[in-house]
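We modelled the chain as a single entity of 143 amino acids. Its sequence is:
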Amino acid sequence: MRWKVLGIAVFALVIAWFTLVNARTVSVDFLFVTAKTSLVLVILISVLLGMCLMAVLWSARAWKMRRVTKSLKQELAAREKELAAAHEELADLHHQLGLEAEETANETASEASGTGESTSPSQNQHRPSTEDHAAMETKEGWK
């Protein structure tokens, strides 16, 4: 805050010095009109017109950026919805895959018990662990 006040004070001093140094009268030709006025007034009017032009140009750019930002936010929201739907679909497929694996294991166990063998599914086949699932997901590119 102090730096702003100091900056404004320095700027005011520079303007005051500038006014005193350029106090002479000059002739200004504008289109078909010639006028005599203070050089400081000519310079200050030029600066103010330049500031107004820059404000208009900056406002147009800011408006365009706001519009682009809004459209990008809408696109991001749509992509997030698509991603959530894909995650749900993946979870459903993962669940179905688990159910199918269970059914296959149960069928294998019932076939084995139907032939008179005394092997249980846990003895007959390896049940995948969490590490096995992680390895399969990495290997098959699920992640």
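As a brief sanity check on the tokenised model: Residues 2-111 form one domain. The CA atoms of residues 4 and 61 lie 26 Å apart.
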